[in-house]
């Protein structure tokens, strides 16, 4: 029986683009980084100063870049282990190595078709479309985006993976470790509430995320239910859980997803809650939102309220997550080759689209962005 040579498993791709947000490496980087992030977004100066202080509190260095390097190394090791010969190129939307640097590196490698893996598991403007737009805009600035959407290096994208078994299992493992840590801290795990935490987004962005098959918050609620159930099954007791949000910005007049994690802890403590495990399922690694908004601010709130609280880990480079990402890459390659593939999921939502719909995940409901986006049908002939 003929077998596919292992190095052909990733065909038609000749590179993987690990595509992330980026963050500052030192104090002098903070202001230019924030300018990159917020260009044209209407974030008040007061919020920017506040966020700048969060970074300066850590010497101006976000943990995100080192974590992406670790993920890149873990992906390379997993690919090598499976005999898949595919370079992994790292690029960021908002800091070095920029998208433009990554495209140059892909060209230097002779790549003609790359597949993008974004470091955001959920679908919304911030977690999906904005990455696709930045790719298109970067290629356009380089004079490499044709009227018909053709590009010198062609890009596809791996689907939003919040409901992929690897991401979910890695979160289950992290939450189980969190419950063990709570017990070690003298807390009472059987009475604890599991508070899942994710990045808040404006209500308008939430509404516009509907086109991607379920809204941003619905994606979180679905996967949270699965994680809580699996954790409960292993621990042998029911797990009470809730979803809370962090890192709100924008003007106060603009509604964003709530409850804020600090408000939720305050309210539940008033109702008698004593023990809490916070699980940042909205983030794939411990970047600044986790280091500041959870480990610093929410932990301080919990301490003031007299709660016994622990923060569970993020998926980071946990083995089920990394193996799952490589499974997703092979799945995407098979789809690109036109083969029938089973797209594994857990929970009640379908696998999200590998090729985004026209106007998928706009910034505001009903308002086309006017910005081209790759990896969707928008520009495809
Ligand atoms: C959904 C989502 C994710 C998760 C998906 C993903 O991972 O992509 C995410 C990730 C991140 N957000 C980050 C940093 C920032 N986000 C900001 C602003 C905003 N984020 C938003 C949403 C999200 N953001 C939104 C709706 C805004 C308002 C402006 C806008 O409408 O776009 C601002 C401006 C100041 C402020 O407003 O806080 C900063 C500095 C970092 C880097 C952290 C580090 O350095 O370690 C990371 C990974
Ligand atoms: Fe953000």
UniProtKB/TrEMBL annotation:
InterPro entries with a match to the protein in the record: Ferrochelatase, Ferrochelatase_C, Ferrochelatase_N
Top-level division of the source organism's lineage: Bacteria
Statement: the UniProt record of this protein carries the keyword Cytoplasm: yes
Positions annotated to bind Fe(2+): 199, 289
Alphabetical list of Gene3D superfamilies matching this protein: 3.40.50.1400
Positions of Fe-coproporphyrin III binding: 62, 131
Enzyme kind, highest EC tier: lyase
Location of the protein in the cell: Cytoplasm
Pathway: Porphyrin-containing compound metabolism; protoheme biosynthesis
Keyword Transcription regulation: no
Catalytic activity: Fe-coproporphyrin III + 2 H(+) = coproporphyrin III + Fe(2+)
Pfam families, per the entry: Ferrochelatase
Keywords attached to this entry: Cytoplasm, Heme biosynthesis, Iron, Lyase, Metal-binding, Porphyrin biosynthesis
Enzyme Commission code(s) on record: 4.99.1.9
CDD domains assigned to the protein according to its UniProt record, in alphabetical order: Ferrochelatase_C (cd00419), Ferrochelatase_N (cd03411)
Stated name of the protein: Coproporphyrin III ferrochelatase
Organism lineage: Bacteria, Bacillati, Actinomycetota, Actinomycetes, Micrococcales
